[in-house]
């Protein structure tokens, strides 16, 4: 029973089985993160391959991103060229994104104010930075293998695929310690990048959801007036309260109705009535929230990658460098050499494919996260 006063219907054994299928909050966050990571990696991998080739190649080898893409497809094909080495980042990306969202959500819950006010964006950024440390530990070794596999000539060097690459690193580069190559550079990219990523997403999302809910309130007040009556402004809680509502994820309280009471199946709704309008709004609310997730996720990912790309370029050079070569140096030395090599053009090598990849990949990631979390939350509510 809920609250000790409502008798639950249904077979007790069936109720018990349904409740066993309800995942704890942390497990839901982890599972949604796994799906989000798979969506990101799969949708963005061809662009990432082009980016790594541009970053790790000698100056002048490719005339640009399109020339690099055409060269890869012509010489190596789509599957063996653009998607070569996908298995390692797919496993790693799935795991690291799951860890990323799990740690971010848990830290954010710890930092969330006790009252109903919106969580400050500084707390969102802090939670993202802490999650960046955790995901770097998972991401570092898989990114090392991915970068090696995406290099030109990797098909001949590693005919056995990512597992052969893994064995060679362990055997020739100091055992398991070799897998930590570039870990510090990965953290230098992920900690500030993750803070920016989550903060931008949340800021945009709050703004758009706040505007959406304000419009819904105005529409609802208009439906409450008689025909011909003027639409006069009623008591509005204000943008601050709307932002506080938007601070709760769409899979949170009253997730199935987007924070509004849905019209039940037993209610009779007149066409054009407030009840009918509420039912229509509920049915179409998911589309609006999906569009918000796509826009905010794509924008956050694009801004994040534009900010951290010089770190990523140096990290790629570091992880693809041969031991004891001139590129086998610290991150700072890579920046100095890149600047001497070509200035900003070298520091921002691969900018075009990176930004082209960033929007769709991160849009897919956030959309998958929101959809899976909504579905799991709805399942949890129905199973109670």
TrEMBL record:
Where does each Solcar repeat begin and end?
24-110, 119-207, 288-375
Does the keyword Transit peptide belong to this entry? no
Q: Per UniProt, which keywords does this protein have?
A: Membrane, Mitochondrion, Repeat, Transmembrane, Transmembrane helix, Transport
Q: What is its main location?
A: mitochondrion
**Location of region: Disordered:** 212-280
Q: Does the keyword Calcium apply?
A: no
What is an annotated GO biological process for this record, any one?
mitochondrial L-ornithine transmembrane transport
How does the protein associate with the membrane? Multi-pass membrane protein
Q: Where is the composition biased (Low complexity)?
A: 212-222
Q: Which Gene3D superfamilies match?
A: Mitochondrial carrier domain
> Know the name of this protein?
Mitochondrial substrate carrier
Q: Which species expresses this protein natively? A: Volvox reticuliferus
